[in-house]
Design brief:
This protein has 3 domains: 95 residues, no CATH class; 209 residues, no CATH class; 70 residues, no CATH class. It is globular, with a radius of gyration of 34 Å. With 465 residues, the chain is mainly alpha-helical. The chain is built from 17 helices and 4 strands. Helices cover 55% and strands 5% of the residues. It starts with 8 loop residues before the first helix and ends in a 31-residue tail after the last helix.
Length: 465
């Protein structure tokens, strides 16, 4: 190797472990040296991407200078490869820094403390390790332990207000969600967007829907395994949530998007543009679900548990209402239901999907309220079940009872004419659940609702959710 004796110290450092004379044509030594060189460059690339700076790029060893013409002919290729590796490392470093900034919490995920208190230190475990099993040594160790306990200096420990980081993350989730609902509602009203519930106020949301919102967030947090991720006070979470709100408020500028996801609207009034857009959204959602399933099976081995969670949630929250003609799948519900299952927190696209769905949930409640999926059918059920003294076309009085029960003087009991035994009772409840009018109230008796909702009859002039 020409000029080997005149190598500077920095050049020697760039060629670690490359010792010995490589002038001969021994293939094994040349292959070994090449392997060492590749390993060194790989380690430099990793270091630069994680902790290094541009100054460390000089540590790349482009090639092993040999006297052979073949080695000299490869110098240009090696230099190009080194430059490409340096460029890749630079972009990797930029991406790593952006990811760190995006996922950093505005407030620490730490247990809050208030003052401190003193506790006695315990050195018994350390002293007991010195025992050798002899009687004399045991007696001396006992005396030593007694002296140590008497001479222990107290240790000051912080007084924690909450002894769980998961609780802190949940509290931040609740506060940011409620604050976002208030902010979006105020912004929509201030801007003057007409596509909103104009009669809804923030006090009404808190009074009538606050308990349901808190239950939603608790379920979202648990199923979404949000205790395994950082808090939601990050630029990444808030950014994708804001993107969802901007999208839904931008729909007012597109007339063909001014429709709801109800059986009647979809069957009778949806234009072809909306159908084409819905197909794209459905295909994208299916691809996202498949990606989650593959990663859950490959990385965590919990494909079946994840699928079971999804199906169980569907059985509880979707199946009871899907057959009702009053059903209206609000986008607050779609965001809540889909978002909590995007719980692969080590994948940025899964975190983005969860944050976007959370933004859907916030927008739906802030703009329209947390309306029930069964719309007016649920309101009729409450009026009838609670015996509210409200006259709806003479159909409701304070003495009427739910058709599933009757009052025999001692309270409400199961009607033995329609159900006898547990199995028949469950069958009766399921049949009533899947019927068109599970509330048991005839729409023909109610002013303003002349016909039952019929999504197959586009000429129906009755109420349509």
């Amino acid at each position: 190797m020409e000029g080997r004796e005149s190598l500077s110290v920095s050049s020697d450092l760039q060629r670690p472990l490359l010792e010995g004379d490589l002038r001969d044509d021994d293939d094994e030594e040349e292959q070994s040296a090449t392997a060492i060189l590749e390993e060194w460059n790989a380690s430099v690339s990793a270091f630069v991407a994680e902790n290094g700076g541009e100054d460390n790029l000089d540590c790349f060893c482009a090639s092993i200078e040999q006297d052979s013409p073949a080695s000299e002919a490869n110098d240009d290729d090696a230099a190009v490869a080194a430059a490409a590796a340096a460029a890749d490392s630079k972009w990797a470093m930029i991406a790593s820094r952006l990811a760190t900034i995006g996922t950093a919490t505005l407030f620490p995920d730490a247990e809050p403390t208030l003052g401190s208190y003193l506790v006695a230190s315990d050195n018994n475990d350390d002293e007991s390790n010195n025992n050798d099993g002899s009687d004399s040594d045991s007696d001396s160790d006992s005396d030593s332990d007694s002296d140590n306990r008497n001479n222990q200096s107290p240790i000051r420990q912080p007084r924690r207000l909450v002894k769980s980081i998961a609780v802190i993350k949940f509290l931040k989730f609740v506060v940011i969600t409620l604050g976002s609902i208030a902010f979006v509602r105020s912004a929509v009203v201030a801007v003057g967007i007409s596509d909103r519930d104009v009669s809804l106020t923030l006090p009404q949301i808190w009074r009538y829907e606050g308990d349901s919102i808190l239950r939603d967030l608790a379920f979202f947090f648990a199923v979404g395994r949000m205790h395994h991720r950082t808090g939601v006070d990050t630029l990444e979470w808030l950014g994708f949530g804001l993107l969802a709100n901007l999208y839904f408020e931008a729909q007012v500028f597109f007339e063909w998007m001014q429709h709801s996801a109800t059986p009647y609207e979809m069957y009778c009034t949806w234009p072809w543009k909306l159908w084409a857009f819905a197909i794209v959204v459905v295909v994208g959602t299916v691809c996202l679900v498949v990606a989650h399933a593959r990663v859950a099976h490959r990385d965590d081995g919990r494909l079946w548990s994840t699928a079971g969670e999804f199906l169980l949630c569907g059985a509880f929250f979707v199946l009871p209402v899907v057959a009702s003609p009053y059903a209206h799948f609000h986008h607050w519900f779609a965001g809540w239901f889909l978002g909590m299952h995007a719980n692969l927190h080590h994948k940025w696209w899964s975190r983005a999907a969860m944050a976007y769905c959370w933004g859907m949930y916030v927008n739906g409640i802030a703009v329209y309220g947390r309306d029930p999926l069964l719309t007016c059918d649920y309101a009729l059920f409450l009026v009838h079940d609670q015996q509210c003294p409200i006259d709806i076309g003479g159909a409701i009085t304070t003495t009427e009872r739910n058709p599933l029960h009757h009052d025999d003087g001692d309270g409400i009991v199961i009607d033995t004419d329609t159900a006898s035994g547990l199995i028949p009772l469950l069958g009766e409840l399921l049949l009533r659940l899947l019927r068109s009018n599970p509330s048991g109230i005839s729409d023909s008796d109610i002013d303003g609702i002349s016909d039952s909702p019929d999504w197959r009859n586009c000429t129906n002039s009755g109420y349509h959710p």
